[in-house]
Amino acid sequence: MPTPLLLVEPGTVRVTFANKAADRLAGGEFPRGELSERYQAYHFTDASGRRLTGDELPSVRAARGERIESFEMDWHLPDGVRSLLISTDTVPAAFGHGDTIVLAFEDVTALKTVQREAARQAEENARLYEDAQAAQGRSVEALALLDAIFQTAPVGLAYLDRELRYVRVNPALAAMNGIAASEHLGRPLFEVLPEVGEELVAELRAVMETGEAIVAADVLLQMSAAPDGRRHFLTSAYPVHDAAGAVSGLGVILLETTEAKRAEEERERALTAEREARRRAEAAERRARFLAEAGALLSESLDYEETLGRVASLAVPERAQWCAIDTVGADGSISRVALAHAEPEKERYGWELSERWPPTMEDPDGTALVLRTGKSLLYPEIPDELLAERARDAEHLQVLRELELRSCMIVPLRSRGRVLGALSFVNDAEGSRFDEEDLGVAEELAARAAAAVENARLYRSRSTIARTLQESLLPPHLPTIPGLELAGRYRPAGEHNDVGGDFYDVFAVAEDQWALVIGDVCGKGAEAAAVTALMRYTVRAAAMVAQGPSEVFAQLNEAMLRQGTDNRFGTAVFARLEVSDAGTSVCLASGGHPLPLVIRADGTARVVGEPGTLLGVMPEVVHENYPFDLEPGDALLLFTDGLVEAGAPQRVMSPEALVELAASCAGQPANEIARRVEEHAVALQNGVTRDDLALLVAAVPAR
């Protein structure tokens, strides 16, 4: 029987019979026995693929009395899945046997396989149809999107055929070209835009021939319609291939960057201007710093030759590699007072050349020309022709060429309408070229240097005059007095450039009688010098007729009041000495002056005299004569207030300190006493006297 059949006991669900068709279905021998024991290894699913439990199996359901018609079930066997249609029926009891359940199997595996494949194919076809529909829709959308992008893109887009004829142009490109899009179509690129050069056309053709695209190339077109005649574009071009892969044309993308370029150029101009402004500011700062340093140097000393040497050294290498300074003498000769170079060997060589070939006023140009005209010279470049003109001889020319001079400027030192000298700045091959800005710095430096030179010369002249005048107010030398030693000291204050009011004098008034005078006039300068001269020569005249020091001061006071000394007063000590074999007698008076000191041979000292009235202030004056004797080894010390106030303002020497200083000089010769006292006063002022100091010592030699 071809249909697989099973006989199953209703109560136990035991398979009691299986025909051969059933055995073949099972792949050998259909299992007999209890289903619960024999069928556990088998896997059954319903049509939906759900696994059936034991109670859901057709045999079990039939044993429960359920009739089954064509129940669809898949039987999962080791060699594969069998799709079955199962029907059941119950055979009544007969011949001593109970009821029997008959299960008939119809193997529909092949049919199910065909059905499933058909369903799968139908599903696949449906999916493919949907995909095709979706792809078509997407294609339409993409084409629409591409068209929208093409039409609305802010950059210029174009498609050109192999002959570079426009096939399609978007509105942005048409606007860039100033021509309607329709007027582009079918026309070659170089016809629509004659400004396009042959070089660009060749590059576009090369894209189609080589397949290599142009990406973001900067293209400049000279177009008369542009505000400045120029338009800038970032241009990209790429080959377009047809379905067969052949190059059908050219795609072009244009982005106009004219405004961006102009903005970039404007920024670059602004940056250039800023850099130039910064450069000028830095140059101005360097210039100000250099001139400030030069000004400080020029004010440090009144020795103008030394100062100019410092200025030349400051200029190298800050402003030049060589710097030389020449001055004009009273006879018109040129003197080189300074020369500097960064390398000491070259500086020495420069001095050698200056001594061998010195500049002269007869030279046709260069320093001599500047000195004659008072006008600056600037040589940004020094040609060989100029060297040939300046050279004195062939050897000189060879030396100048070996120096490899590149640039030079010479500026005058002018002051009060006179040309005092010239500053020369030179750079060699390693230096830069001088320009007008450098010349301006050099001229300003020269102006300051000229002022310093003029001030130094005036100061030197004034100092010479002051020294000469001061010397005229002091005795050129002290007289020789038998039996008496004399020593005088005068130390002016400060820079010695003004006439002081301190003076002393020693002169004979009779045989063996001598006058010693020391005085001080308030103030300095010519007016003080005039009063000093009046006091000195009035004392000399009065001493010849007056009987004592007080009478001398009375006549001096009257002369000063009568002369009218512009409210300038004076102080003085006048002493008359009589020298004899018996000893030395002294009579002195003080006119408002610090009282003198007597130094005794025994090592003591004391103040002598009585204070008196200032001279030249009031008509009525009081001056007392004070007599005393000097024994052998004794000395008389007269001094101005420059000694008393040597330690001022911190400390003024008291009478006790003066006495102590004088006593320390006991037994010394007159010159030694004067030296010690002067050195003590200078030491109190750290070597720089703030007020004039005059000392006069008369000593009786010890026996």
A few lines on this structure:
The chain is of the alpha+beta class. Helices cover 39% and strands 27% of the residues.
Please give a structural write-up:
- This protein has 703 residues and is an alpha+beta fold.
- The protein is 39% helix and 27% strand.
- It has 19 helices and 27 strands.
- Strands 3-2-1-7-6-5-4 form a seven-stranded antiparallel beta sheet.
- The mean pLDDT is 84.
Separation of termini? Answer: 185 Å
Integer average pLDDT: 84
- Based on CA inertia axes, which overall geometry fits? elongated
Low-confidence stretches: none
What would you call the structural class? alpha+beta
Q: Please estimate the helix content.
A: 25-40%
Portion in strands: 25-35%
Biggest β-sheet strands, sense, barrel: 7 strands, antiparallel
- Computed over alpha carbons, the radius of gyration is 65 Å
Strand elements, count: 27
For the largest sheet, list the strands in their spatial order: 3-2-1-7-6-5-4
Number of helices: 19
Oligomeric state: single chain
Itemize the secondary structure elements and their pairings:
Elements lengths: L4 E4 L5 E5 L1 H7 L6 E2 H4 L4 E4 L11 H6 L7 E7 L2 E12 L8 E8 L1 H44 L3 E6 L4 E4 L1 H7 L11 H4 L5 H13 L3 E9 L7 E12 L5 E10 L1 H43 L3 H15 L3 E7 L5 E8 L2 H13 L10 H7 L3 E3 L4 H7 L3 H9 L2 E11 L2 E11 L7 H37 L12 E7 L10 E9 L2 E9 L4 H18 L5 H15 L6 E11 L2 E9 L5 E3 L5 E3 L18 E5 L4 E5 L1 H4 L10 H9 L6 H15 L8 E7 L4
Antiparallel strand pairs: 1-2, 1-7, 2-3, 4-5, 5-6, 6-7, 8-9, 8-12, 10-11, 11-12, 13-14, 13-17, 15-16, 16-17, 18-27, 19-20, 20-21, 21-22, 22-25, 23-24, 23-26, 26-27
Helix pairs in contact: 8-9, 8-14, 9-14, 15-16
